[in-house]
Amino acid sequence: MKLLRNPWMRAAVACWICPLASAQVITTYAGNDAPFTGAGQKATAVQIARPDGIAVDSQGIVFVAAGGLAMILKIDTSGVVSVVAGNGLVRYSGDGGPATGASLSNPMGLAVDGAGNLYIADVGNAVVRRVDLTGTITTVAGNGQHGFAGDGGPAVSAMLSNPTAVAVDKAGNLYIADSLEERIRLVRPDGTISTLAGNGTDGLTGDNGPALQAGFGRPSGLALDSAGNLYVADQFNNVVRKISNGAITTVAGNGNGGSSGDNGPATKAALGIVNGVAFDAAGNLYISTIGNQGIRRVDTSGTITTIAGTGKAGFSGDGSTALSAAFSTPGALAVDPSGAVLVVDQDNNRIRRVVPGGVVTTIAGQTLSIGDSGAATLARLTNPGGTAVDAAGNLYIADTGQNRIRKVTPSGTITTVAGTGATGGGGNGGAATAATLNSPYAVAVDKAGNLFIADAGSNAVRRVDAVTGVISAFAGTGACCYGGNGTGGDGGPATAATLYFPTSIAVDQSGNVYFTNVVQLAGGIDQGARVRRVTTDGKIDVYAGGGFGFAGDGGAATSALLGANLKIAVGPDGSLYIADQDNNRVRRVDPASGIITTVAGNGKSTPSGDGGQATSAGVSAWSVAVDQANNLYIGGLAAVRKVTPAGVIGTYAGNGQFSFSGDGGPATSASIPIAGYLSTDGAGNLYITDGSDERIRIVQPGNSALAVSPTSLAFTATGPASQTVTVTNSGSGTLGWATAVSTISGGAWLSVSPATGSSAAGQPGATVTVSVKPAGLANGDYYGLVQVTSSSASNPVSLVTVRLTVGTPGPDPPKVASGGVLNTASYSLQTPVAPGTLVAIFGSNLADAGQVYTASSFPWPTQLGGTSVSIGGELLPLYVVTPTQINAILPFDLPVGTTLPLVVTHGNALSAPEPVNLVASEPGVFTLSQNGSGTAIAVIVHADGSSALAGPGASAKAGDALVIYCTGLGAVSPRAVAGTPIPLQPLSTAIDPVTVTIGGVNAPVFFAGATAGLTGLYQVNVTVPSGIAASAQAPLILTQSGRSSPAGVTIPVQ
Hints:
- With about 1050 residues, this protein is mainly β.
- Among the domains are: about 375-545, TolB, C-terminal domain (Neuraminidase, 6 Propeller); about 555-700, TolB, C-terminal domain (Neuraminidase, 6 Propeller), CATH 2.120.10.30; about 705-805, Immunoglobulins (Immunoglobulin-like, Sandwich), CATH 2.60.40; about 815-920, Immunoglobulin-like, CATH 2.60.40; about 925-1054, Immunoglobulin-like (Sandwich).
- Helices cover about 0% and strands about 40% of the residues.
- It is built from one helix and 85 strands.
- Strands 72, 74, 75, 76, 81 and 82 form a six-stranded antiparallel beta sheet that branches.
- The protein is globular.
- Mean pLDDT is about 95; it is low at about 1-20.
């Protein structure tokens, strides 16, 4: 077979400068990476998850911060979208390298300076970053630690807490709205940081005085006028304020909610919550407000009017006058060179363009598809929170970033059971699916199936009736805040109480509901948290906590000091368990006596003590759950620990690596960044919220696997016809599954029955009937897919391709050769491949005859020349596509120890699924001959610093460093994204250790991991040992997890 050259290897050779120095099985149950696949398309055709920030440069190029994608997108003047920064992972990495390979965390505010540099408020990482004109990203403010410190020193050494907005003036001064610190920070061109405004307190204070003595209410937007005065969207004070010559004043808003005052002085108008501000060239100030769900303008005389919005949340009006258009949570604003106002329409996931006095249009985004009614493992979750399981085995997920509660059935189908996706707290008394939620952090289910929601942003707990599906207020009026024991309605009806940001919730067997409640004192000072309880008679009280700190063990729980970050769970005996994160402990409240004690943790966060008593162990207590056998589970950084009823602690899941890997394998070998929430079900399964990876993972006692046969069907029919396939559980236990169909063209001619089912291991498979109805179809071929999914299976997606021929058959569809998915370094036949591997897919009719399509930039596209490839339903980034070969990279998040179907789509035709065997690692070394044998592609670095590519005239000797280029080393830490460049810092190291022999002699490895700046390429850096017999062909072998690179690869040694 003809092998395509690997053009990326030419760049790789220049990269030798990279540093030379249980029986339980885990799988993903819901969610996936949901990578952005819209680069190169019209912006109106792509989905933009949770847009938060916007900026426009002098040429009219628009930049959008998409928090739900962890990316910054660019929309050029022709309306085509591309990625400017972010690889889609919620992390902090990549400084000094390509911005498209960097990781961001909840990016929000954007600004462009006069030179065209882009500034990003990277909120979750507590930094501000800059992308220069070469596309390189760096941090310009913040050290990555949340807090307030560093004034008078270098901005990169300072602490920021929640930098939500940025602005840059003509002199190059950078302004930062540090929302949670209630301050505006200033970074001067020399890199020094100071506070420009705000004294750190919450409130509308300080007007007409020094800005440094003013209070704020979560400043959320910044804008500069032509004179260089700074304007602040003072979000929860419901005003816009101006900072000029060190003094602060209010220029719009009277501090009240609602919306009023049009055609009068702006300072007398009611604005409600203010999100964004912007100026046009004429000096008009534009304000986005929640009060009227629209845009208001303050002209140069100080008069305010509404220029866009109907006053009610919704989506409508494109192509109509601005005042007849509906928005839902309008956010950041920008004004383009033509004077049109660009609006981040947050809940509608769109960017809209408002011509003052004219019409509204959408310039980017469309209705977001979140995967409802489909397989949970293919659905989109955004910053998922707590989970709970009902008696029927349904899993409920607080999809915090989507403002929804999702349900996953035992068969693996996901739906929304509460929330529309819009932000709000309305809808009580009606269907929960028609209600609005505001950052729902957690859920609980009582024994009757009633659902309780910790609706944090609404300062409320809400209840969804199990029978009617109606949502109602259960606790909290929606008002803020709670001042501690004996305040906020304690002792009275829960529905009349005031709450503040409940983030964890639990219910006991008697129906008492417990939730966490942040305490906020006057001036907006947070003072720890409490656990409050609503008893079955509807009364609210404090159940645990009497102050902030650590004290009180052995006494009444209501007098104990607790931290500010708490998660809770109720055991089968009614005991309340509190994960007290700030104190690095898990504490228990006895249900009979109300006495609190520590049951795990010695106050130190560094994990220690496995095999001993939990109270002597170091624990990172971010979350907690209890199973029916009274085993206690503690989630934290990179691991879940288990405490037996005897008090002995051990690691239950996680290998200590802050990354993502291991799906399909032992839970203790998997990587989990943070176990943010935990829950258990009656079968002993543990559910882990892996929010950093936008998914819920399950740890279960056994391993089940789907087997579907046959995997392709062909119909030649003029009338209805049916065929059958069999679904078998080739693993253990009983596997619930669901079926669904899709067609490439021709509409709804394909159907499947039944929609759900189950298969027990060792039993005959279930029969699924696939039917076609060709009525109304023109002559030709039609293709469709039958998808069989199960969230509990190690291979969660199986596929059956269907070809329907009506009349004369068309051209042959794409075909993948049997065993034709190979490692591009080794080209070894009948060999499994690993996630993250560069693969060559051999076959026929994979592209238009005679054509070669090549990716021209990062991130690699998922479609080239009308061809796309999926594995297990997940699209592959493509590098080269030809009629007989495709070079691509496998996603890093694929499960291992299993087989997934690979399907090629070209035009309207589908290939039959080709089974691909996946393992954690399968190393292959690139060779000069590019056929998997002969001299390895490796760079020799001599002691004097000189280097050469190994080969004729260049041999390695003892003491030299050798940089070996390969692929197939599997998961890395920090985590990588297929198709995007690997960050320069920190380097991504292979999770599974690598050993190397040269001429049969062990060579010390001092780096093994992904090559920075490229994708799919790995390097192993070794020191050439002494004792190797001189040879032009000394055998080179890489071994990882017991799997070795193929023989036949050599290195010249002198």
